[in-house]
Amino acid sequence: MENCLALKVTDKDNVATIFANGVTDGTNVDVRDKKGNSETVTVIGDVPYGHKIAVRDIKKGELIIKYGEEIGAATKDILKGEYVHVHNLEALRGRGDL
Amino acid sequence: MKYTFQGYRRSNGKVGSRNLVAVIPSVICANDVGQAICRQVQGTIGYFHHQGCCQLPIDLKRVTDTLSNLGQSPNVGAALVVSLGCEGTDANRLVEEIRASGKPVEIIRIQELGGTARAIQAGIDAAQRLVQEISDLQRETVDVSEVVMAIKCGASDTTSGMASNCVIGYVADKLVDLGATVVFGETTEFLGGEHILARRAVGGENGPVGQKIYEIVKRMEDRAKAIGEDMRGGQPTPGNIAGGLSSIEEKSLGAIVKSGTQPIQGVLEYTERIDGQKGLWIKDAPGREPEILTGMAATGAQFMMFSTGRGAPQGFPSMPVIKICGNPNTFERMRYDMDLNAGRIITGESTIEQVGEEAFEEMLRVLSGKMTKNEALGYFGSMDIFCLGPVI
């Protein structure tokens, strides 16, 4: 069976977005870039459609990069394949107090 | 590779993708007369806005400026101004400025002519003359560097930021590399990503362009604060978080990605035009369709590339709008409204680059005269002008 799809936009990105339903802990997904190159990554955690996984290990405090730009910082160590969202990513700006 | 399209060269050197007679009411109260003229005379379009009276002077000037810019836009070959007679806008300035750009212009005044029916009759005669006068202009081969593309997204969903916006970003980068002009706006969507945009400004974050980007975002936020609303708090919304967006930066970048990656050359006010400037520009315009589409057409864009996920059907009277749909299901359901299926990216059938190339080719066809879905349907009646102050 073909693997589920995850997309990343630039080579700098350390996260990819899942475009498949039913991705659960241990599912293999193909992470594709804009040219169509792909790499298979095993997902850690249950990840809903449109949510993100790490495409490499990310250390606590490191920037999370999507679209080639920072979308936040890791609040804990994140493993390759792990679900990335508000539980382990903190916005750097726009909390209403900046 | 050399890319060209077939466009209408105007006497002032600018190039249009359409050759239309614009019927321009100087005030909302002249709309009905203008609409009757447009129904009768082929080759006309109308700018049926809702402004032009009982507004503060700064807004009345803004309305006159915008209507003048629309009349001067390269897709317009001639203009008929429909004046009531007592409006707050400056109908004479409108006529003078459009005429100075080298186009035939006529004006009818409803009160002076003795009312609606007489004005409609005079207006039909005038519009017919203008259409006939410009109708034998031939298209000629034009280099792609003369393209002015406007971009926008609307009725977005999870697919927009990863598929259709990325496709438009690809086209934007390619156009800028080829020496053309790209204009994006939606200042509201910069919130949380303004520092990233400012870093892309020519001269850097602390240069005049970078600082102007911060300024237009602050101006918008301050307008909301003046009536007691904080636009930044509560972002991303619970709905955004449920959809997978983790931060306001991510939300903002999902929209900004359609501008590509090139340096930002400058910021245009809502009433400013592109007059030969090349590269990527920002226009300070809100996200809502009627106002930003007007702003983009008035700035001189020959067409717009519009990204959507849920399916936004509308266009603009004088500016073809190419709908790039990121959601494959929406594309199937709304295939008579959507021009290009970027949903193949999220199903894995195509890459961003492949769909980007298709969008670029479609752009050249539309610039050369191919009708977009919304043009063929005539779905472009709603437009308006972005004003700042209260209605009095």
Key traits:
heterodimer, A: 98 residues, mainly beta, Archaeosine Trna-guanine Transglycosylase, Chain: A, domain 4, six-stranded mixed beta sheet, three-stranded antiparallel beta sheet, B: 392 residues, alpha/beta, Rossmann fold, 2 domains, seven-stranded parallel beta sheet, four-stranded parallel beta sheet, 17% strand, globular
Q: Helix and strand layout, with pairings?
A:
The complex is a heterodimer of chains A (98) and B (392).
Chain A: E1 4-7, E2 15-18, E3 28-32, E4 38-42, E5 52-54, E6 63-66, E7 69-74, E8 83-84, E9 89-90
Parallel strand pairs in A: 1-3
Antiparallel strand pairs in A: 1-2, 2-5, 3-4, 5-8, 6-7, 7-9
Chain B: E1 4-9, E2 15-16, E3 20-25, H1 31-40, E4 44-46, H2 57-72, E5 76-83, H3 91-100, E6 105-109, H4 110-113, H5 116-134, E7 140-143, E8 148-153, H6 164-177, E9 181-184, H7 194-199, H8 208-226, H9 238-243, H10 248-256, E10 264-268, E11 279-283, H11 289-299, E12 303-308, E13 321-325, H12 328-333, E14 340-341, H13 352-367, H14 373-377
Parallel strand pairs in B: 3-4, 3-5, 5-6, 8-9, 8-12, 9-11, 10-11, 12-13, 13-14
Antiparallel strand pairs in B: 1-2, 1-7
